[in-house]
């Protein structure tokens, strides 16, 4: 009986938080008529995922609000965005971490109306046919029966309606090194990067994210997605990068980044509610 009580206690704690009048008032302010749907969705998400239930309720709410602000569904089967648990051994607490899926970045790029083409794929053995070490350009050719060949890298490509185009390639070895540096959970043997069925999806997301953040014109939503990816949120809704590299847990200009993120969240809420979006603080 005691074990059962311990198992349901975190869910009761979340239900108490989400039904608290102060939480309800905050959600009404942020979401207006969309509040009821949000509460139903987050309650179902937490109720159906025992791994999320130990997370601090505030972090769960803000992570889900981020997905809502970006208008991305939190259905893991769709691959647009995820809310994942992250246990901080230093504090002994578990927080909800927001993560973009590669389909989410593609969706935001499509919405911007600036892209003619955006694609990403794994690269198989023998598909790199030429590399110019002076210009850095690589030529690819699709191999026959490629699904039977080992993966040697990942590449993302975009072409804007203006005609500007760019690609970004990483070898599999570079991707493993990237995962080890930027994900503490991967080094500990768990999380999305450590899941064999998810590694390639995370790798494709990485080349898309790095390509867009380095070379593409970023819409407000896209910049917000890049900033919020892999963030956990504290009780005030401020992002923290708990699963990032130990030497770079936060962006250099974190105060400016947080202020810009909050501004974009207010703007998204105002747009959803049909209110003015100019001159937002």
Written account of the structure:
Helices cover 45% and strands 20% of the residues. The protein is α+β, with helices and mostly antiparallel strands and 281 residues long. A hairpin with a 4-residue loop joins strand 1 (81-88) and strand 2 (93-100). Helix 1 (2-19) runs antiparallel to helix 3 (35-47), helix 5 (102-112) runs parallel beside helix 8 and helix 9 (220-228) packs across helix 10 (254-273). The protein is globular and about 60 Å long. The model is unreliable at 1-7, 246-262 and 275-281 (pLDDT under 50).
**Mean pLDDT over the residues:** 84
Shape: globular
- Percent range of helical residues: 40-55%
* Helix and strand pattern: HHHHEEHEEEEEHHHHEEH
What is the tally of helical segments?
Answer: 10
Could you tell me the radius of gyration in angstroms?
Answer: 20 Å
The main sheet comes to: 4 strands, antiparallel
Strand order of the largest sheet: 1-2-8-9
Relative strand content: 15-25%
Oligomer: single chain
- The low-pLDDT segments are 1-7, 246-262, 275-281
- Strands, total number: 9
Question: How far apart, in Å, are the first and last alpha carbons?
Answer: 51 Å
Q: Helix- and strand-based class? A: alpha+beta
């Amino acid at each position: 009986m005691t074990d059962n009580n311990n198992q349901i206690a975190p869910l009761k704690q979340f239900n108490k938080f989400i039904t608290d009048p102060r939480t309800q008032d905050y959600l009404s302010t942020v979401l207006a008529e969309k509040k009821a749907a949000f509460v139903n969705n987050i309650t179902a998400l937490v109720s159906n995922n025992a791994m999320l239930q130990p997370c601090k309720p505030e972090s769960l709410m803000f992570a889900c609000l981020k997905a809502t602000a970006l208008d991305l569904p939190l259905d893991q089967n769709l691959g647009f965005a995820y809310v994942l648990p992250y246990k901080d051994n230093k504090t002994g607490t578990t927080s909800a971490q927001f993560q973009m899926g590669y389909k989410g970045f593609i969706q935001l790029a499509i919405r911007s109306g600036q892209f003619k083409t955006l694609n990403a794929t794994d690269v198989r053995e023998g598909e790199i046919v030429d590399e110019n070490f002076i210009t850095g350009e690589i030529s690819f050719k699709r191999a026959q029966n490629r699904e039977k060949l080992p993966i040697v890298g990942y590449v993302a490509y975009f072409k804007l309606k203006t005609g500007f185009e760019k690609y970004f390639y990483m070898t599999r070895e570079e991707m493993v090194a990237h995962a080890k540096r930027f994900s503490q959970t991967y080094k500990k043997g768990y999380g999305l990067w450590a899941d064999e069925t998810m590694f390639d999806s995370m790798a494709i997301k990485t080349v898309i994210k790095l390509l867009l953040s380095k070379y593409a014109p970023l819409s407000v939503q896209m910049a917000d997605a890049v900033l919020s990816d892999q963030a956990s949120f504290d009780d005030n809704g401020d992002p923290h990068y708990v699963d990032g590299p130990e030497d770079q847990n936060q962006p250099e200009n974190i105060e400016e980044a947080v202020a810009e993120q909050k501004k974009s969240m207010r703007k998204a809420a105002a747009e959803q509610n049909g209110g003015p979006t100019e001159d937002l603080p």
